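hey team, just a heads up i'm posting the complex here instead of the shared drive bc the drive is being weird again. everything in one block, sequence lines first with there labels, then the predicted structure for the whole assembly after. its two chains so it's a bit long, scroll down
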Amino acid sequence: MFQWGDIYMTKQTFRSFASVLAVSASLFGTQVFAKSDITIAMQLEPPHLDPTSAAAQAIDSVVYTNIFEGLTRFMGDGSVVPGLAESWEISDDGTVYTFKLHDGVTFHDGTTMDAEDVKFSLDRARSEDSANAQKALFAGIESIEVVDPLTVKVTLSEPNGNFLFNLAWGDAVIVAPESIENIKTNPVGTGAFTFGEWVQGDSITLNRNPDYWGNQPALETATFKFISDPTAAFAAMMAEDIDVFDNFPAPENLPQFEADPRFQVLVGSTEGETILSTNNKMPPFDDIQVRQALAHAIDRQAIIDGAMFGYGTPIGTHFAPHNPAYVDLTGKSAYDPKKAAQMLADAGYADGIQTTLHLPPPSYARRGGEIVAAQLAEVGITAEIINVEWAQWLETVFKGKDFGLTIVSHTEPMDIGIYARPDYYFQYDSTDFQALMDTLNSTTDPEERTRLLGEAQRLISTDYVNGYLFQLAKLGVAKAGVQGLWKNAPTAAIDLTQISWSE
Amino acid sequence: MSRSLILGAFLSSLVLLAALVSFVWTPYDYAALNIPDKLQPPSAQHWFGTDHFGRDMFSMIMVGARTSIAVALVAVGIGMALGVPLGLAAAARKGSWLDELIMRGNDLVFAFPSLVIAILITAVLGAGAINAIIAIGIFNIPVFARITRGAALSLWESEFILAARVSGKGAARISAEHILPNVANLLIVQGTIQFSLGILAEAGLSYVGLGAQPPTPSWGRMLADAQTMFSFAPHLALIPGLAIIVTVLGLNLLGDGLRDWLDPRIRVARA
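-- predicted structure starts here --
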């Protein structure tokens, strides 16, 4: 029924609504809010969001320290600091670690995080049927014992000087049995951010966790956007569609960002040893002379200048130059094409060698590969370039071991231990090195460890296992006002808790 | 002769010449890296400048022409060698199950988006010039089969064919001796057009990394490599882009000109 009163009421309502609008408009008008959302681009989209069951770095970039936390954690400078463990005690013989957990930590679904969850997580990671990509991290654990809800005792079979470092990896984060089933699509952790939304092929959104046990982060929401094409990355950055590009894929564009006051460029180091991986079991590369010739045929500086536009540090072994234990061994494999050709002739390959060079998509590999192939051609090694996608690379090279040479960056931190695995894809089988790693793992004295690490670096460099090219640089690009970004990448992570906008 | 024929012939022979000369001479070794000299703009030493590895762009364009022409030529050759006999056979047995089979097979190939299938073929067989040739060649078969059949059908109605039939010649012999010479000019014109499309297809495949593999230069890959550097070294993209344009334009003009020139009706009208 139509009545005049209705119109009056409507007008009244409208008027009061309008005045509310006016008030709120003036409120927003007078107050200045610091920006509290950020859009961060990365090149690869994670396959799923469980860091404890896959090696994909993109998973850690999104979830590490943001959604999931471990007992210890990495900081941007590579140091290992307490995470969910408030403190710990190590027995005198170095085999028993007693962790004291933070009180009042809850998972995003409201359940409490306690010693049972720690035991569950570590047992799950080290179990026989575990899908963990870094099971070696947990190999030394003998037993895990819940002392009380906030105390966990971990017993190792022998002392391991790396144990706290191992626990900081994304593969060692604490998960809850209540939410483990859907962890891949709905990750529930203890971190300062909760999982929001995943638009497949486009972006993942995280929201601030109001119940976080630690300090509240400055950001309210963060969006991770996936842009794989370097040209699109450049365009999106220039158009200011994104605030941060975690690791910019086209080093040639960095001078333009540097010259532009709207942007800042953060050139740091990653843990990525970029190497010319050599199939040590495939003739003629089973001959150390041939491998040494390979090493002398490579001009590292030309590769860094040509493929990376000058960004990157030459390496002579499988170790990060920014690590205090690093030994500079580049001189052992200095560029000397004459010597390389001579060595090939001495090894009985005066007529040259035919082999394959598998190149995965990143520009360090594709461009670096073209340069390496040209340099090898000069000493008589014909390397047929085969460009492959990552899936194909994993299938033929990594799993199938059907390759002569390949270029890849090994981005896991402190991963020299892979040389102790004879069935690893480059198939280096040295009992000396394996014994050395065993000694290293049971050594806790820092000085002795440094000495052993140096020896390990020398050993693989003397055996010319692979061609060591350069340490991959981390090339971050961000808008000028973004603070708290990691300059280096001690592990794959985009630590949102430290990021804020300056006024 | 029309102006388009002359211009087309000039541009096409320019590219062909560059490709042929590259067998015996290029200003520099096209594969020689010289990283300190990278990204130089065109100059007296390097007529087209140098690329991001310091390679001489002029030499690369010359050898790239060779790659493009070789791939497109062989692909068109495959199309003709298989398509023309199929078309002749279909026309000779018009309405039979053979005709149906060939023409429906044609329709089937036509129904697929050619470049996407070419990408699929090279992705399955592996990237490389040979597989690019196969992929492009397959899509040339129905083009030639259809055009041959169409022209041959009208010829089969003509009186000189009737005369040949009366004199006792079989269908295969008539097709080879009487039909084929009379559709040849059509095939030449279509071949030129397909050739230019083949150049484009090769550039497209190598742009996505499925054509000739490094260090063999190819125009498409040069374009792809230049993408991120366009803002500070535009010659890296402009030069291979122009090379493709010149070649395709030249071949199309040539094709158009040849059609006008070879078509007897137009020739009579002009005279």
